Give the backbone structure.
Amino acid sequence: MTKIKPPKRYWLMKSEPDVYGWDDLIAEGEGTWDGVRNYTARLNLRAMSVGDGVFFYHSNIGVEIVGIAKVSKGPFPDPTDETGRWTSVKVKPVKKLKRPVTLKEIKADPALADMELLTKFRLSVSEVRESEWEHILNLAK
């Protein structure tokens, strides 16, 4: 039996569900994470590797983590960028959370107080520590 390797790193990617939501990623089977125009988020995209874990977060509407995806293709030039300055990755859905974890819950949980979602809240792509990842998975059960 083949062992599944755990992700090396963990991330949170925000998307407005009325623009590109979890259901859109499911329908596509693999999505290109493009259009990111923030330098810190770009550094995060460039740090991603195939197999890294991703929390799919609905921003503006719902404001909650709704699913788990994985990086399926590492950093490459953003196809929506004519300057060659920006970066994209591809992601595939892994599973929908049994219960979404809301921003309100995350803010109220002392174990997640240092999460980049809260400390760098304007970032559309942020890193998640392994302990935060595991804690959120427990909240979603």
About this structure: The two ends are 27 Å apart (CA to CA). The CA atoms of residues 38 and 106 lie 23 Å apart. The domain at 10-140 is CATH 3.10.590.10 (ph1033 like fold).
